[in-house]
Specification:
Rossmann fold; 16% strand; 2 domains; two-stranded antiparallel sheet; alpha/beta; 411 residues; 7-stranded mixed sheet
Length: 411
């Protein structure tokens, strides 16, 4: 009974503690919703002109975002509008001439450039934009800091009887040096828009085109200004949005390409969890690999081979080389040396007499003893072959060694 009371008290105490902690958390904390900026997702993350393209399509104008210059002869029509949203526009000489012909036929080109000039019109870039070079339009920089750029008010102007506000970058401005523009937009920071006629076509040059990107087109009157701009002077049949950046080669020429971030940036952006997990696993593996359980095993000593093993290996080698007569000769010499030390008077006997004496002592056939001790009486010699030439059978070789071994043991 006493143990049951203790268990009941412990349960009640635990429940009371849990309720107290819950009440304390409820009275001291509350849920708060927080908005986290994650940026654009999906197609909008890869295409900064997606919002502008959707806007034009909903307003009834065919629009298409491309990564390279469309085929001027087959794709671009005389009533089309081409927007070059790229920082550093470089085309081949053939593409440049085609653009000039397209403009002369009635096309509308909207563009900006990243080529900066100093106060006297000089620049360090050798591959200038041929379009702006022909118009003698220079782009300068005011040198404003980030705070002044962020606090600068939007540029106010009247366009087609509409009073619009567009947030041009106040750090950049344009300067015409030869041809007078038909129309311009400026503020206290400088000129941000220049409009020219070129043959039957028109060219609109802006200090920057950031205001038509996804993150800016919804602010101020950016969307309305883009609509009026692409349909300026005449309605556009189609609008091409070119957002490919240019790659400058070593010879000063450039080719359009889609700027791709480095591989490590792509991997970190899309697989940062995998990279962190792999790094942690690698650290654990290195840590475990650097640790040892128990002492090191001693290096086993190098075993020395017995002399008998070397002798046996030499015998096998001579047998494979068909040198059995060499082995038999060595065995005979060892037996004769043993016989000389035991029965020195027998060494003067003939082979037949010696075989008879040994046959009596060892109880072996005399003819077999004579054949084993006398190589001229071997099976090879009887067949007319010289000893040492040809291959001795294993049975004859073994029998000869057995006889000589038994004689040595008997002596």
């Amino acid at each position: 009974m006493k143990s049951e009371h203790i268990i009941t008290v412990l349960i009640l105490l635990t429940v009371g503690i849990v309720f107290y902690i819950g009440y304390w958390l409820y009275s001291h904390y509350e849920y708060i919703s927080e908005t986290v900026e994650v940026g654009f997702q999906g197609e909008a993350r890869d295409n900064p002109l997606l919002a502008a393209e959707r806007l034009l399509e909903r307003m009834g104008t065919t629009a298409k975002t491309v990564h390279a210059l469309p085929n001027v002869k087959d794709d671009l029509g005389s009533q089309d509008t081409l927007v070059l949203l790229q920082y550093g526009t470089f085309f081949s000489d053939d593409q440049t001439q085609q653009l000039f012909h397209w403009l002369d036929d009635g096309g509308h080109l909207i563009m900006s450039s990243d080529t900066l000039h100093d106060v006297v019109g000089k620049t360090t870039k050798t591959n200038l934009d041929p379009l702006l070079k022909k118009l003698r339009v220079y782009r300068h920089q005011n040198g404003l800091d980030k705070d002044k750029i962020a606090q600068a008010p939007p540029t106010q102007f009247v366009w087609a009887q509409y009073r619009l506000q567009v947030a041009f970058n106040p750090d950049y401005y344009l300067e015409p040096s030869y041809y007078d523009p038909v129309k311009e937009i400026s503020d206290k920071h400088g000129i941000h828009f220049l409009f020219y006629y070129y043959g039957n076509g028109i060219i609109s040059v802006l200090s920057d085109l950031v205001f038509i990107e996804n993150g800016q087109i919804g602010e101020h009157d950016h969307a309305q200004f883009l609509w009026h701009l692409v349909h300026f002077e005449r309605p556009a049949a189609r609008v091409w949005l070119l957002r490919t950046q240019a790659k400058v080669e070593g010879d000063g020429t450039g080719t359009p390409f889609e700027k791709i971030p480095p591989l490590w940036t792509l991997l970190w952006t899309t697989m940062w969890t995998v990279i962190i997990s792999a790094a942690i696993l690698l650290l654990f593996w290195l840590w475990t690999a650097s640790r040892r359980f128990g002492s090191l095993l001693p290096t086993p000593p190098r075993a020395r081979r017995r002399l008998l093993e070397h002798i046996e290996a030499s015998g096998h080698f001579l047998w494979r080389q068909e040198q059995a007569h060499t082995l038999l000769h060595g065995a005979r010499q060892a037996l004769l040396k043993r016989l000389e030390s035991v029965h020195p008077d027998w060494t003067h006997l003939s082979h037949a007499e010696l075989s008879q004496r040994l046959a009596q002592v060892c109880e072996l056939p005399a003819d077999e003893i004579e054949e084993a001790l006398n190589p001229h009486q071997s099976p090879l010699a009887k067949r007319g072959k010289v000893p040492g030439q040809g291959r001795i059978s294993e049975m004859a070789f073994t029998r000869s060694l057995q006889i000589m071994t038994q004689i040595r043991k008997t002596l």
